[in-house]
Specification:
The complex is a heterodimer of chains A (about 500) and B (about 525). With about 500 residues, chain A is mainly alpha-helical. Chain A has 21 helices and two strands. In chain A, helix 1 (about 5-25) packs antiparallel against helix 2 (about 30-55) and helix 10 packs antiparallel against helix 14 (about 330-360). In chain B, a hairpin with a 2-residue loop joins strand 3 and strand 4 (about 465). In chain B, helix 5 runs antiparallel to helix 12 (about 260-285) and helix 13 packs parallel to helix 19 (about 430-455). Classes of the chains: A mainly alpha (about 500), B mainly alpha (about 525).
């Protein structure tokens, strides 16, 4: 049987689930078990690459999975936006898996089988989100993603982990079932389906007032996008092991959230219609406030991972902002930001984890002088930070530029200001970290802390962030093909 | 599947086909006293199981007959209605009959280990006798076409229920007060109901339900009929545990013997709910006998209050079965809400939710019962670590629990989806909102139990996880079957949905009131 795009869609789910079977079967032999993860990761990436090429060639592979009650159905249709998300998630999953092995072994973590098993299920769910052909399908995989990442968040199993996990699950489940699901059902009720339609399923089918209500339900129901005030689960999920944080922040979870937000904007309401909905403008304000407020909070956090968490909340709202401004350029910038932010942020998290593995330091203030002993890690961190700040020639520069160019209408100009302020705040909360590591004198040199010189980060925790840092440079120059790939989505309906 | 059924039915002797309707009720009714005479618990159990399997056959015969002919009417002694008593099976009560029969069989299979443990050996045969009477009573309520007959069977099932609940008194003294509570309230309910039937007889001179409808037509505004309606509505409301007449339910469900709890939770209120539909939109004519505004002004608010208040109450219970019981009252609110919409879509959604709730709540009570048998679990915190120590039971509990929340890929989602759609179609956005708020509350009370099971460490004795009694396969199999059913009916709800749709269309026509 030769590969066809339709088969590729099945493989999107089948490969990671096959990986999870492998993890279970080889649970007693750690090396084989990790091989199952890595092989399925590589196979998935290869499959996604083929799919991306097919989509680039104009194909829109579709697959009917099953029909459920009431005219609802589960089906897949891959379009450029979803293909990009799938490519991003599968590439980062492979790197993150390498990193997980180094981190989990280096820290002698327990219950590793459950850990890898949950990971494979979660990535399958993320693939389902990427390929979903309608909002209902997307919702189902969105929920599976929440449930499968829950054991990951609570992995440490102590009281703190359970508390974080409880907040994680209750906020995400409550918003999704209480707001997101009603919006999906209402969409189905109004339009007769929840299919993603180029130009917008609901476009001009509903009054602006009703569209506003629906949009508010969607925007706050998609809790994974962490739009304020639904952001609290994210810092609380920081109790998880670092590979999980990287997975949450860069690979799948929050990215699934903003991806859903963008899908909703482009395919459910349609960009042209979005610009006429009053609530879209209010939500753009909420997003802009989230951007600035979360950056300010990040500035006040000394805990390394918490600072990064608030940085993520701020950066996610860039994407929500783009989806709400809904000019083609802004939406394109938002789509790019999903990709570019992911590479930068995963670099930062993996660096944080490498530092923790070597020195068990969790606070920013404890990093003084570490740059000398961990030059690669902090070098990667510096590159990742600069990319998030948006400095050329790093990947993060493009989405910010496009977002600003998309916000030139008089009514939107204020948001350009928010983006600029946020960039300055990024500088203020990210750059002191490598600066302190490279230029400040270590405190414990005098104390002679016993393990200070000897501890080295495991190789597998250092190599992945360096790779992703290099990727942020490469992506800056690869912008042309990516733009060509995405542009049809935002200019004229994508799917047709 | 239908071909297999037809082939099977072709093997049966002709008299079972001709008399399936009365046999369905009479055989368990007569089996009760015989079970009592068998005196030994296991023997009585085997006998009861045999009879319940026989009722399963009769129910399947009725299913195929209704599928072929639309409805089945059986006149006792060939006294044609409206003179004699008739049994009448159509799509509406067929769904209920199938539900009761299947849950009866599953409860019996499930119940043996727990009965042997919880009931004193001398009383075990009596327990099964009471169970069979209750089973027969519920089937009788559902199948009969005679209004007074409904009362008789309602009393048979209620009185045997009081006995079943009180038999929990050996293990849990609170069962006695719960049973007494239920007895008082249940009797008041039955009295109201029979007074209502009396008024109806006064006004129409007939007890045959189909005939009453005919007589009521063209009667215009009649105060006696209105009084009858009010009495019957309240009486059945009590039996259905309609908020705020539900106070008997939590105690009765929480303190009864395990097997009785499983059976009652999945059937008793469902049958009462069916009876309410039968009377309100089948016998009485909405719009002529009662103002359909009563649905909006009385029934719907009580339904919404149940959904919200009882879900909150479920959040604050420590006793596991109390959580499930309060959740049952809330779920009955969903069903009544469907009825109160007064549209075919609403009634159909309510019936579907009745079916789904029966299979999921039955499963939850089964799982809690297994936990109780193995580890003596009674309270939420006793669930700690059971996800590891009893993985299969915990998995069954989880699936049914997710279905209770209404998470997609479980049956509970389907009926809630239809309820929300029906509410939106009716323009009742507030009802849709109430369904969703109540579902979010369910996330929390179910989540609390799941969290204990999967995230808390099992209590340790001397550094070792305590070992519980091994789970009997007899108890586990029905639970897993119900869990599977909760997933199956998400993807193929054609059986319950088809019956519910047909029933609602028959009652209300295409549109509604």
């Amino acid at each position: 049987m030769s590969w066809t795009p339709e088969l590729g869609l099945i493989l999107l789910l089948a490969i990671p689930l096959g990986g999870s079977v492998g993890v279970l079967v080889f649970s007693r032999w750690a090396n084989l078990r990790e091989a199952a993860t890595l092989i399925s990761g590589a196979a998935l990436l290869a499959n996604v690459v083929m799919l991306v090429m097919a989509v680039d060639g104009g194909a829109r592979p579709a697959l009917d999975l099953m029909h459920v009650a009431g005219g609802l159905s589960l089906n897949f249709t891959l379009e450029p936006l979803g293909a990009v998300f799938a490519a991003l998630a599968s590439a980062l999953w492979l790197i993150n898996s390498l990193y997980s092995i180094g981190y989990m072994r280096g820290n002698h973590a327990k219950d590793q089988t459950r850990f890898y098993l949950s990971f494979t299920i979660a990535i399958a769910a993320a693939m389902g989100v990427a390929a979903a052909g309608n909002m209902f399908t997307l919702f189902v995989f969105y929920e599976i993603l929440t449930l499968s990442t829950y054991p990951l968040v609570t992995h440490n199993g102590d009281e703190k982990a359970r508390r974080g996990g409880r907040i994680y699950l209750s906020i995400l489940m409550a918003t999704s079932i209480g707001l997101f699901l009603p919006a999906v059902i209402a969409t189905h009720f109004i339009a007769g389906s929840t299919d993603f339609m180029p130009g917008g399923l609901l476009a001009d089918q509903v009054t602006p007032a009703l569209a506003s209500v629906l949009l508010l339900l969607y925007a706050f129901g998609i809790g994974k996008a962490a739009l304020m005030p639904v952001q609290n689960w994210l810092p609380n999920a920081m109790v998880a092991p670092t590979p999980v944080s990287a997975f949450l922040h860069a690979v799948a979870v929050v990215k699934a959230g903003v991806f859903t937000m963008l899908k909703m904007s482009v395919y459910i309401f349609g960009l042209d219609f979005m610009r006429t909905i009053p609530a879209a403008h209010w939500l753009a304000w909420v997003a802009a406030i989230s951007i600035v407020l979360a950056s300010l909070i990040a500035l006040s956090k000394d805990n390394f991972k918490e600072r990064l968490a608030y940085s993520t909340i701020s950066q996610l709202s860039y994407i929500t902002l783009g989806a709400m401004i809904a000019t083609p350029l802004a939406a394109l910038g938002a789509a790019l930001h999903i990709v570019m932010h992911a590479w930068g942020k995963i670099t930062l998290f993996m660096c944080a984890g490498a530092i923790y593995s070597a020195r068990h330091i969790t606070n920013v203030s404890g990093l003084k002088g570490l740059g000398k002993s961990m030059p690669w890690v902090f070098g990667a961190f510096l590159v990742g930070s600069l990319s998030i700040i948006g400095l050329p020639p790093l990947a993060g520069a493009w989405p910010k530029l496009l977002l600003m160019m998309g916000a030139t209408d008089p009514i939107n100009r204020v948001f350009i200001g928010a983006l600029i302020i946020s960039s300055l705040l990024n500088v203020a909360y990210l750059l002191p970290i490598p600066a302190r590591a490279f230029f400040a004198k270590a405190e414990n040199e005098a104390d002679g802390a016993p393990d200070a010189p000897a501890a080295k980060a495991p190789m597998l925790t250092v190599l992945p962030p360096v790779l992703t840092a290099i990727a942020t440079v490469a992506l800056f120059f690869l912008i042309g093909p990516i733009l060509d790939f995405l542009r049809p989505v935002f200019e004229s309906g994508g799917m047709s | 599947m239908n071909a297999v059924l037809d082939a099977f039915i072709a093997l049966l002797p002709a008299w079972t086909l001709a008399h399936a309707a009365p046999l369905l009720v009479v055989s368990p009714l007569l089996s009760g006293p015989i079970a009592l005479m068998l005196t030994r618990g296991k023997l009585a159990w085997a006998w009861a199981l045999l009879i319940s399997l026989a009722t399963l056959v009769f129910a399947l015969v009725l299913y195929s007959q209704v599928m072929d002919h639309g409805s089945v009417t059986y006149a006792f002694g060939d006294w044609a209605p409206p003179l004699g008593i008739t049994y009448h099976v159509d799509t509406l009560n067929l769904l209920v009959l199938l539900l009761v029969v299947f849950m009866g069989v599953l409860s019996l299979i499930y119940g043996l280990p727990s009965v042997l443990r919880e009931i004193a050996p001398a009383n075990q045969a009596a327990f099964f006798a009471a169970f069979m009477l209750c089973f027969a009573g519920l089937l009788g309520v559902a199948i009969t076409g005679d209004a007074f007959n409904v009362f008789v069977f309602l009393e048979i099932s209620s009185i045997s229920t009081y006995v079943l609940v009180a038999m929990g008194g050996g293990a849990d003294r609170r069962a006695l007060t719960s049973s007494f509570n239920y007895l008082i309230l249940g009797t008041i309910g039955a009295t109201f109901f029979v007074i209502g039937i009396g008024f109806l007889y006064m006004a129409t001179g007939t007890l045959n339900m189909a005939d009453i409808t005919v007589q009521l037509q063209g009667k215009g505004d009649d105060r006696v009929v209105r009084a009858a309606f009010a009495f019957i509505f309240i009486g059945l409301g009590l039996k259905t545990a309609m908020f705020p007449l539900h106070t008997w339910l939590p105690g009765a469900y929480a303190h009864s013997p395990t097997m009785a709890g499983v059976f009652l939770a999945s059937t008793a209120t469902k049958v009462a709910f069916y009876t309410m539909i039968r009377f309100m939109v089948g016998v009485f004519l909405p719009g002529s006998v009662f103002d359909s505004a009563i649905l909006l002004l009385v029934l719907a608010p009580m339904a919404v209050a149940a959904m919200l208040i009882c879900s909150v109450q479920a959040l604050y219970q420590a006793n596991l079965r109390k959580i499930l019981a309060y959740s049952s009252v809330a779920q009955l609110g969903y069903m009544l809400l469907g009825l109160s919409m007064g549209t075919a879509a609403g009634v159909s959604a309510g019936l579907l939710h009745m079916f789904n709730h029966a299979i999921l709540k039955g499963g939850l009570f089964m799982a809690v019962g297994i936990f109780a048998l193995s580890y003596g679990v009674r309270r939420v915190e006793d669930l700690r670590g059971l996800g590891k120590t009893m993985p299969l039971t915990a998995a069954g509990f989880t699936v049914c629990g997710l279905s209770l929340i209404g998470v997609p890929v479980t049956a509970g989602f389907v009926s809630k989806f239809y309820l929300v759609s029906a509410a939106l179609e009716r323009g009742w956005w507030w009802a849709a909102a109430a369904i969703l708020i109540s579902s979010v509350l369910a996330i929390f009370y179910v989540g609390r139990m799941l969290e204990m099971m999967y995230l808390q460490k099992a209590p340790q004795v001397d550094g070792k996880i305590a070992k519980g009694e091994p789970v009997s396969a007899l108890a586990l199999a029905p639970l897993l079957l119900l869990a599977a059913a909760n997933i199956w009916f998400m993807f193929d709800a054609s059986l319950p949905k088809g019956l519910a749709d047909a029933a609602a269309a028959a009652l209300l026509g295409g549109g509604g009131l």
